[in-house]
Amino acid sequence: MKYIVIVPDGAADHPLDSLGQKTPLEAAETPNMDLLAQQGTVGRVKTVPRGFVPSSDVANLSLMGYDPEVYYSGRAPLEAANLGIPLSDDDLAFRLNFITESDGKVLDYSAGHIKNKESKALIDSLSLKFGSQQLQFYHGQSYRNLLVVRGGAKLGLDKVKYFAPHDIMGQSVEKNFPKDKRSQEIVDLMRKSGEFLENHEINRVRIDLGESPANMIWLWGCGRRPNMPLFRDKFGVSGSVISAVDLINGMGKIIGLDVLKVEGVTGYYDTNYRGKADAALKSLETKDFVFVHIEAPDEAGHNQDLRMKIICIERIDKFVVGPILKAMTTKDFRILISPDHPTPVMKRTHTNEPVPFVMFGSGIDYGGYTSYCEKEAATSKVYYDKGDELISFFLKK
User: Fold this and answer.
1) pTM of the complete model
2) Residues with Cβ < 8 Å from 153, sequence gap 6 or more?
3) Structure confidence at residue 397 (pLDDT)
4) Domain map (residue ranges) of the chain
5) Do the beta carbons of residue 323 and residue 281 sit within 8 Å?
6) I need a surface site. Which of 11, 35, 188, 299 has the fewest CB within 10 A?
């Protein structure tokens, strides 16, 4: 049996007046996903446990089959795993975003999706200016980078509440700093980074070109080194993960999935959709399981870009689901498609309601649905209160 999980990150949404009370998923042309709904089962799953912030790390951990209430230890350590950054028991990893600050507010959580070459140069500059044996800067991809605070757990920094920059767009920088005396060093670093980056040569050029400057760092997603059982030990199958983001790839590395590199993947609208499908099919020649993650719909939701959210969903259907479905029609397989969480365009951030999923393949009941969307899923009696329960059923032979 071959198992395929496809995660259109943040694709779930709310009905919109501009779409005649349809959601982007409902409005998009998705003949392949609709076919799966017509011949398989549609339902809902709650990927974010009660009491957890509806974040991609928690939700995708759940969709990989690991209960966040048992295994979650923070976002940044998962990204650190993908970059090969060793963490001791007392070390803490922080996600470091390059943001654009303007008039004391968070204008852009990604500094205009800054290019890798520019962000690498900025990280190197920050390391020279502020780096030490305790504070260590690491480049990731684009605006997504890391800071490791060696011995940070002894300082209680993991007990402090931090805010994701994409959740505070348009809000005050100062009001969203952690209000805890233990985090003063972190807050001071964020403030000083703004003073340092404001006049950096790269930002002067970006401003001249009319681009958003990366004029401040934002630290969040703090956590310790995770400890999770291997996927093959937990579920009895070997597999691979395909994603453009360090978070998902880091999860894969920790649980023993092969992390596949695909040329042209960006984590944005222009990612190599077809390349991900081809890599998934190639992996299934020797592996039993593949987890394909596509970040683009989530980015469109955060950017409040309704048009691109619909386009990205349609690209996933055409260039990812379509080729995989066509190639697997004569094989014993199952396919599951589910967003990790909603990212409604009107809210510009994640929400924690259940998401719609569609499941098709060997041993999956026919449910008689007409399409794959939130509205159809809401009529279904199929509901999983935990994401890991859905995966356990999906992988049951």
Assistant:
1) 0.86
2) 89, 90, 91, 92, 224
3) 63
4) 2-72+228-394, 83-223
5) yes
6) 188
| Measured CA distances, 212 to 120, 218, 309 (Å) | 16, 15, 22
Neighbours of 179 (CB within 10 A): 10
The backbone region for 264, taken as left when phi is positive above 0, alpha when psi lies in -120 to 50, beta otherwise, is left
Compute the average pLDDT of residues 33-57: 95
Strands 383-384 and 355-361: unpaired
Contact 255, 196 (CB under 8 A): no
Helix axes 387-394 and 56-63, enclosed angle (nearest 10): 30
**Which residues fall within 8 angstroms of residue 7, CB to CB, at 6 or more apart?**
60, 63, 291, 292, 293, 294, 337, 338, 339, 340
* Distance, CA of 176 to CA of 159 (rounded, Å): 16
Question: Which of the 8 DSSP states describes residue 103?
Answer: T
- pLDDT value at position 179? 87
